[in-house]
Amino acid sequence: MARRAGALIAAGLAALTLGPVAVVMMQAGEGMLSSADLAALRFTVVQAALSSLASVACAVPLARALARRRFPGRGLLVTALGAPFLLPVIVAVLGLLAVFGRAGVVNTALRGLGLPEVSIFGLGGVVLAHVFLNMPLATRMILQGWQAVPAERLRLAQSLGFGPRHVWQHIEVPMLRDVLPGTALAVFAICLTSFAVVLILGGGPAATTVELAIYQAVRFEFDLTRAALLALMQVGTCGLAVAVASFFALPAGFGAGLDRSADLPAPDGWRRISDAGVIALATLFLAGPLLAVALRGAPGLLALPVSVWPALAASLLVAVLAAPLAVGAALALALARAQGLGWVGPIAMLPMAGSQLVLGTGLFLLVFPFVSPATVALPVTVLVTAIMALPFAYRILAPQAQVLVTDYGRLAASLGLSGWPALRLLVLPRLRRPLGFALGLTGALAVGDLGVIALFAAEQGATLPLVISRLMGAYRMTQAAGAALLLVIAAFGLFWMCDRWGRGGTEA
Amino acid sequence: MAELRLEGFRITQDDFTLRADLALPAGGRVAVIGPSGAGKSTLLNAIAGFVPLNAGAMTWAGQRIDALPPGERPLSILFQDQNLFPHLTVAQNLGLGLDPGLRHVDWGGVNGVLDRVGLAGLGGRRPAQLSGGQQSRAALARALLRARPILLLDEPFAALGPALKAEMLALVEETAGEALVVLVTHDPADARQFAKQTVLVADGVAAAPQPTAEIFANPPPALAAYLGQ
Amino acid sequence: MKVLCFAAGFLAFAQAAQAETPVLDVLTYDSFIAEWGPGPAIEKAFEAECGCDLRFTAAGDGAALLARLQLEGAKTAADVVLGLDTNLTAAARKTGLFAAHGQTPAVDLPVTFEDAEFLPYDWGWFAFVHNKDLTAPGDFKALAASDLKIVIQDPRSSTPGLGLLMWIKAAYGADAPAIWEGLADNIVTVTPGWSEAYGMFLEGEADLVLSYTTSPAYHLIAEEDDSKAAAVFTEGNYLQVEVMGKLASSDQPDLADRFLAFMLSDAAQEVLPTTNWMYPAKVPASGLPKGFETLAKPEKSLLMTADEAEAVRATALDEWRAALAR
After folding, report:
1. Residues C307 and C198 both lie in one domain
2. Which residues form a coiled coil (chain C) (predicted)?
3. Do C206 and C275 belong together in one domain?
4. Number of domains within chain C
């Protein structure tokens, strides 16, 4: 049942992701790739790989510290980890600049101390920004891995007198081999298509990504064949990354637990200090730019133009429709994958590497001969947002769907538990935590996503990100900052509600 | 002679309380028996260090052990299930009993113990490739390797058939030597076969041990009810 | 089923009722139709006199607008396209979608501007904007020699970015690469669009930002802040001329002509300076808004024709990339 549904959804997803690329490809154009495009590809891969490694390298100690320490505000911190990922790119960049920029806090302090300034522009800045945006997400994904270690294993480890080193060797390393490749892959794919961050902080044309080349091909050269080729190049790179990740991934095979509760051992001594240090540093690193966003936005919040409110409603509507769609499809794919349908895994990751501009252009070309694009703006926006968000939901759900099927698949089959009852009695309760997280994340992404909306936008029905970009385009930076803060509050509120539901009101 | 002593021992969990004042001698073979939910496993988990004491003290050979982490207490415990790491081989699972880092492991000794429990040549397998009885033997083998003076058994053989269970208890008896063995069981036959002394856990109290033959011949009311007499 | 029939009938009725008022579809860029842009006022004024329904469709910025038009081709529902600039008109003309406007309005541009298909409706000088407490350099060479920090836009994704590329090419021709090499260490970063660059400038990340001579007018008029100024360069400042054109496929050609003429009338031209923050193509009888007289006025204006711009673009882009990609 789940296999058939999964296969069907995967086929549809592949058609929706690759179909538009094919349509774009068939348009007029010379389709020649230049040496500059290859240089762009090289830079894109290098920055994405560095960003991914750095994000994951920072996320592991943070997730570990969060997994084994209990302190006041811990739940808040875990929830707040969702925030940076949800920021519109330009808002996040301005937040980072307020801390690390030329006129930022860090450089002002360095100047005050008579020390040389640091520049955020260049490859280092790109990686820094990507770590800021993606490390929290990676932390949440890895933290889930820690929480999924059955209590029985920890009890056994304790009874054998495992020290922290041995817990690391026999429990944490196998868990990480299971969880890390997928997490690194997700961050890699996000950074692969990242375009504004790279350009703004990259400092110049040396920092050119494939996505920018696509932009140029569509907008200035109208060479759609070339744009499609570039998009395929991007998908191919991501496919290669999927292969590499699955080569490194090893299922931990911890087996089933009985949900007995057990805390991870919280070792004393220098480990306690280093955990506290890691948590403090990460909090500072993440809170600084977020605080700057809030401070920049607060004055504008009082002077918002009226068009912000219908835009907020439109964005929320898109989120409310797109998030369940994305998570439902991702769940079906994850279950199908867990039941042995291996080929749906890479397909579920496909949209992450897809170029939004090419996807939107292809859909536009498909729709335009039949109806006015503006009349289908809402369904198209919902669909595209759901497609773009699906890989994230899938990444969150897949590992635990696998565990669920491995541990309880036979039991469920022996009881004849399938279809809706299986979903209600087994899947939803067992996967509630990742489902809540996935729903929150996709919903929030949908609120903050500019995506292809611009191509389909009607006179009415602009979404909040579009209004922010219009405000910024008209010198109204204060109002834009206010609207961005509103967006962050809305996105984060949505995320918080879903995530809290997933955690059943308990601490993570 | 060393003994495990519980003094003024009290555990409170929600509306459940378990008290104990008792001593178990080294080399003893003690069964813990009582109605389901009376706190047999809680007693064992408290001795092993997984449940903190609310009051009282616990000593072995006169040394306080109730503040030690589980791995540093002079004991090994076998749980009802999940005694082996499924992603490690049997030999590695045993080796953990000697060095959790698996660096300073006397692999000859590991093989010797595997021999003793009848698992010769199976060290390279994963737990999933063993039968239930073999898994129990592997878990016991690790406890033997650790050679701690107390061995706690929390119904680890309950899932085995009667003949296999009897065989395992005989193996424990044969291999445990001078260790104090405490066996939680719900089966009077286990107690009769294995334990010279029996602790009855009922009505929130773990009573002082009595000779097994005596307690079954003349059961107190709680035990009589449990036995269906 | 009944409900469906009723709905269908209602829809047909509603469409019939609408069909009595002719509809003019105008494809434009995003910021034109914003609540604070010129769109709402222009729509109101034009609808009052034309007895028609003016509908704006927005498509990103100027470059996205052209891409959108090319995607739609001859099947486009648009009657008028408004918002291309002269760096894009050659490509727009090549689509063959535009009809000659046949109008010869008198316009107040600092250069002579003639184009059979495209009419200007507003314009501005590109300029580096800075805070008044800074002594701005007088030309590109002085800027390159200084240690001032600038933020510019990417010519591959932004029209001002492309404008700067053309500016340096128009001023220096074959020597343009040397200028770019000189500027390389002044450039803090290159942003995808105008807003990111301007936002970063306002946050203090750069001393100067590529924008327009009219930018200080926004701060002065809308925010009562006179701290911003634009630098006039001795090489001359490059122009951005925003144009509009009528589509050959239009089903409302007369209405389209009327709209083009309306856009150059006082009613529309009065709106543009304080909504689009550009100079009106034809100064209205009421003159420029108060505050515009304080703006810097370059004595020399540079502008390549559409064909020149199209011809040098690829070379200029390669030079730019080579000079900065180190």
Report:
1. yes
2. none
3. no
4. 2
Q: Which of A202, A365, A459 lies closest to C33 in CB terms? A: A459
Per-residue pLDDT of chain A (508 residues), as tens digits, is 567 888 888 899 888 888 888 888 887 666 677 777 888 889 899 999 999 999 999 999 999 999 888 888 888 888 888 788 878 787 888 889 989 988 888 888 988 888 888 888 888 889 999 999 999 989 988 988 888 788 888 888 888 888 888 888 888 888 888 889 888 988 888 888 877 788 888 877 878 888 888 887 887 777 888 888 888 888 888 888 888 877 777 666 665 555 555 567 777 778 888 899 999 999 999 999 999 989 988 988 888 888 889 889 988 998 999 999 999 999 999 988 888 888 888 888 888 777 777 888 888 888 888 887 777 778 888 888 898 889 889 988 887 888 788 777 766 665 666 666 677 777 887 888 889 989 998 898 888 765 555 566 655 667 888 888 888 888 888 888 899 899 888 988 998 899 888 877 444 3
pLDDT at A255: 59
- d(CA A409, CA C271) in angstroms, rounded, equals 68
For residue A415, the 8-state DSSP code is: T
Residue C60 above 80 pLDDT? no
Check which CATH number belongs to the domain holding C59 and give it.
3.40.190.10
* Structural contact between residues A177 and A249, judged by C-beta atoms closer than 8 angstroms: yes
Distances (CA, A) of C119 to A111, C101, C244: 52, 8, 5
Of the candidates B88, B150, B93, the residue with the CA atom closest to the CA atom of residue B117: B93
Same domain, yes or no, for C305 and C165? yes
Asked if A105 has any chain C CB less than 8 Å from its own CB, the reply is: no
Candidates A256, A147, A167, A173; CA nearest to B71 is: A167
Instruction: Give A-chain residues touching C191 at CB under 8 angstroms.
Output: 199-200
Q: Does C90 touch chain A (CB under 8 A)?
A: no
Closest-CA residue of A relative to C74 is A369
Based on the fold, state whether residues C49 and C128 are members of the same structural domain: no
The pTM of this model reads: 0.81
Based on the fold, state whether residues C217 and C82 are members of the same structural domain: no
Tokens 């919902």 correspond to what residue? A382
Q: Say yes or no for a CB contact (<8 Å) between A364 and C71.
A: yes
Domain boundaries, chain A: 2-27+40-253+270-296+303-504
What is the rounded CA–CA span in Å between residue B188 and residue A116?
79
Range of the domain at C220: 124-239+298-325
Helix axes A173-192, A344-353, angle to 10 degrees: 40
pLDDT at A450: 57
Residues paired with residue B76 on neighbouring β-strands, in sequence order: B151
Contact A255 B72 (CB under 8 A): no
Q: DSSP class of residue B210? A: E
A85–chain C nearest CA distance, Å: 19
- Cβ-defined contact of B69 to A158 (cutoff 8 Å): yes
Q: Which DSSP state fits A477?
A: H
Name all contacts of C219-225 with Cβ < 8 Å and 24+ positions apart.
C219/A475, C220/C291, C220/C294, C221/C274, C221/C289, C221/C290, C221/C291, C222/A475, C222/C274
Q: What is the pLDDT of residue B72?
A: 84
- Please, are residues B73 and B65 in contact by the beta-carbon 8 Å criterion? yes
Given its phi and psi angles, is residue A388 left (phi above 0), alpha (psi -120 to 50 degrees) or beta? Answer: alpha
Q: Nearest CA to C2 among C10, C15, C16, C13?
A: C10
ipTM of the complex: 0.84
> Do C168 and C287 fall into the same domain?
no
- State both tokens at C223: 């925010």
The chain B residues in contact with chain A (CB within 8 A) are 48-50, 69-72, 76-77, 79, 81-88, 96-97, 100-102, 146
Same domain, residue pair C18 and C145: no
Same domain, C41 and C100: yes
